[in-house]
Structure formats: C-alpha cells, structure tokens
Amino acid sequence: MAHDALLECTALSARYGRIAVCRDMNFTLNRGEVLAVLGPNGAGKTSMLGSVSGIVSGEGSVRLLGQEINQLPADRRAKLGLRLVPEGRGLFPDLTVRENLRLGARLAAADQRERLIERAVTLFPVLGDRWAQQAGSMSGGEQQMLAVGKAIAGDPSVLMLDEPTQGLAPGVFDILRQAILALRDDGLGIVLVEQRHAFARSLSDRTAVLVGGRVVYESASGEDIDRDELMRLYAETAAAV
Hints:
By secondary structure, the protein is an alpha/beta fold. The chain folds into two domains: 1-81 and 171-241, P-loop containing nucleotide triphosphate hydrolases (Rossmann fold); 85-155, no CATH class. It is built from nine helices and ten strands. It has helices at 45-53, 74-79, 97-105, 113-123, 126-129, 140-152, 170-185, 197-201, 227-240, and strands spanning 5-16, 19-30, 33-38, 61-64, 67-68, 82-85, 158-162, 189-193, 206-211, 214-218. Strands 6-7-8-3-9-10 form a six-stranded mixed sheet, with helices on both faces. It starts with a strand and ends with a helix.
C-alpha cells in the first residue's frame, strides 16, 4: 500500500444471499483525495459502498490505514474511521440537530467531540441556526447537511457519500461542494458516488466507473473523463457484460 493510501479494496465483492451484485472490484483512496464513483442505475454503486462499510455481505480485502478490516462488523469499521452517509441520510428524525451531532461525535475521542461538532457547524452554518430543531422537520438540503455534519463529528479518516445531491435543489450543491473541498483539504479521503456528472467532475481528483458490478475504468490522478466518453464507456461495457 502506498504511504498516503487511506483505503485499499482488492477483489471486493458484494452479495445479497447467493446473488453477487459486485465482483472483483479494485480501487484505492488516498489522503486528501476525492474519488468519484460513477455508473448507470443498477451498476452496484450503493452495494459497493455497503460492502466497504460492512453493512452488505461480501468477500475480498478491505484495508483502512493499513489494517485489514473486511472481517470486522460495520460498527467497528466506523469506530476505526470509516464513515458512510447513505442515500437515506441515516438521521434520527425525532432528535434535534444538536442531539444528532452529539450521537455522531460519540465515535470520536471524548476530548475532540466539541471541536468536531464546531467544525461541522462551521462548514454548515444553518445547523447552528437549527440547533434545537428536530431533524425530521428540516428541508431535504438541511437534512443532507446534517447527515454530513453528523459523519464529520465522528472524526472519520474516510468519508463515503452516496448520491449526496439526490432530490436536492441546485442551490444546495455549492454548499456541499465547498464543504467537501474543505474536508479534502483537511486530509480526509472521500468516496463520492454520484449520478450528476458535472457535480462529480467539479470535485474529483480521480474517477472510477462501475458498470455491471465491476470497476471498468479508474483514472490516474489529474486525469478526467468527459460526459461523451462516459456514455460510450457505459454502453460498450454494458454490452460486453
């Protein structure tokens, strides 16, 4: 593993019972890097994140900060610094913003929790304005900000975001973009699963493309893939799967 690699997945699979939806996936994530994972609907992107985080069964090697974690349950992986913000956001709707953030911070060292909560509120000032509001009564964009803030409060080294712009108004995109870039500058590794190619392209240092449950393309650092090339890759690989 390279000295700056936070996460390395080798021959990773994801399965539901006997049905394998992802197979032989290989990718790495480095410190201070955003890896965008693109793919058509049904490509297995969410299942891949589930396998990495431990909430979906799978085989293969998952190494976090040099430690093999593929035999650990999801809560142990989270405690070690691997955090997933799922499509459903993973919030407690009946709890307040403050209570959600404090629950997220329980994964961090006790003497770091207040600092990390403050970091989340600095990135998303609306959370401070909604401090005593129940999460379930917030707008979709505010809930997404809280979900990312809750993950940040747990002091992750790797943050995985599953379709963070889904169903949100375009005005929220730039807030999320600036927060993700700030977290990257803090040294986090970020896996961004996203359908919006322009949003992903504005953030990513590298790109992986998933088609038919396999990683069929992974760019080198600084390389890019435009939308036309991406659509051709989707069509060509899907026909061959």
